């Protein structure tokens, strides 16, 4: 049976962003820019470049700036037009046009699994992608697109994975199972943030998933796990017991932009990729390294 096309994505954006205080006291952490593009826009662009049409944003109180960012801003765009700054006006408008955003709220902070479950009314019975906003993945073929290709070819849910050093497994959801080929694993078990001694492998999930809608029932049955929260990884364990779940080692460089150093790493990498900025950034780096 041919698989149903993946047209929808969920972006959980309900967290408090405590790792970035005080910056996140009054603005959502998703709006912090990498150079001049808010992180959430980079995530939405990955989804759009992967063929996603509808993006379900799971937010919380005080996150209205994200919705405004993906809307039109008539005052700004009209002022820019009148000042003959058409390019800037178009940059602003094109964000509003880029996707169809559906915004829902997670009213209680019960964990990532619960945030994904909040998206069920907007997803229904379709397969969907999940993109976590702290994880930026720079790839020629967007990571989500790579996973959608696996989903559609194998007709099975799939999580993106990367190999991490053993001491780092306790930062991630980790998968274990049988390798089908050097890049593809049939997953039999998953553990959220295990101690290195308890990890089934060093394959970590850096925030990209393409799942069948069966995950919602699994999440409804998932009890609070690590940190007393309903973990997506625990829901995936139930899914793996009920239907085929794959892990795919994607091509691309991942930045943990939710961590201070990871954020600086991402900022430098994205700035150095911009031809108009790269020479200046190189000069600045030289200056600071000399000092
Ligand atoms: C979440 C997930 C974890 C995943 C990680 C990727 O953890 O629970 O399974 O590996 O994102 O960044 P968090 O970093 O939000 O604590």
Give me the secondary-structure topology.
Blueprint (H helix, E strand, L loop, with lengths): L7 E5 L20 E2 L2 E2 H11 L4 E6 L4 H6 L4 H9 L3 H12 L2 E6 L6 H7 L1 H4 L4 E4 L3 E4 L4 H12 L2 E7 L9 E9 L2 E9 L10 E3 L2 E4 L2 H8 L10 H11 L2 E5 L3 E4 L3 H13 L5 H13 L1
Helix pairs in contact: 3-4, 5-8, 5-9, 8-9
Bound molecules: 1-O-phosphono-alpha-D-glucopyranose.
The site of 1-O-phosphono-alpha-D-glucopyranose has 14 residues, from β11 and α9.
Main features:
about 290 residues, alpha/beta, Spore Coat Polysaccharide Biosynthesis Protein SpsA, Chain A, five-stranded mixed beta barrel, two-stranded antiparallel sheet, 11 helices, globular, binds 1-O-phosphono-alpha-D-glucopyranose
Describe the structure.
It contains eleven helices and 14 strands. The protein is an alpha/beta fold. The protein has a single domain, classed as Spore Coat Polysaccharide Biosynthesis Protein SpsA, Chain A (Alpha-Beta Complex). The strands form three sheets. A five-stranded mixed β-barrel has the order 8-11-9-10-13. Strands 2-3 form a two-stranded antiparallel ribbon. A two-stranded antiparallel ribbon has the order 7-14. Strand 2 (33-34) and strand 3 form a beta hairpin. The chain is globular, with a radius of gyration of 20 Å. The termini are far apart. Residues 112, 132, 134-135, 172-173, 192, 204-207, 231-233 line the site of 1-O-phosphono-alpha-D-glucopyranose (G1P).
């Amino acid at each position: 049976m041919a698989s149903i096309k993946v047209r929808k994505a969920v972006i959980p954006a309900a967290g408090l962003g405590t790792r970035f205080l005080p910056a996140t006291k009054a603005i959502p952490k998703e709006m912090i820019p990498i150079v001049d593009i808010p992180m959430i826009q980079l995530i939405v662009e990955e989804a759009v470049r992967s063929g996603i049409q509808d993006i379900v944003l799971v937010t919380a109180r005080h996150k209205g700036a994200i919705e405004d960012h993906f809307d039109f801003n008539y005052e700004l765009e009209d002022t820019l037009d009148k000042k003959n700054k058409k390019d800037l006006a178009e940059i602003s408008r094109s964000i509003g046009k880029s996707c169809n955003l559906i915004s829902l709220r997670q009213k209680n902070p019960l964990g990532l699994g619960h945030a994904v479950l909040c998206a069920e009314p907007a997803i229904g019975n379709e397969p969907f992608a999940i993109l976590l906003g702290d994880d930026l993945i720079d790839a020629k073929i967007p990571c989500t697109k790579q996973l959608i290709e696996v989903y559609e070819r194998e007709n099975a849910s799939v999580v993106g994975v990367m190999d991490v050093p053993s001491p780092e497994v306790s930062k991630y959801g980790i998968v274990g199972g049988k390798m089908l080929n050097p890049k593809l694993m049939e997953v039999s078990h998953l553990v959220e943030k295990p101690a290195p001694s308890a990890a089934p492998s060093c394959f970590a999930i850096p925030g990209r998933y393409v799942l069948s809608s069966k995950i919602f029932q699994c999440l409804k049955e998932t009890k609070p796990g690590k940190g007393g929260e309903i973990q997506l990884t625990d829901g995936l364990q139930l899914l793996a017991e009920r239907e085929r779940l794959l892990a795919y080692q994607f091509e691309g460089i991942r930045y943990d932009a939710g961590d201070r150093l990871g954020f600086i790493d991402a900022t430098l990498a994205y700035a150095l990729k911009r031809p108009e900025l790269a020479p200046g950034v190189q000069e600045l780096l030289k200056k600071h390294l000399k000092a």
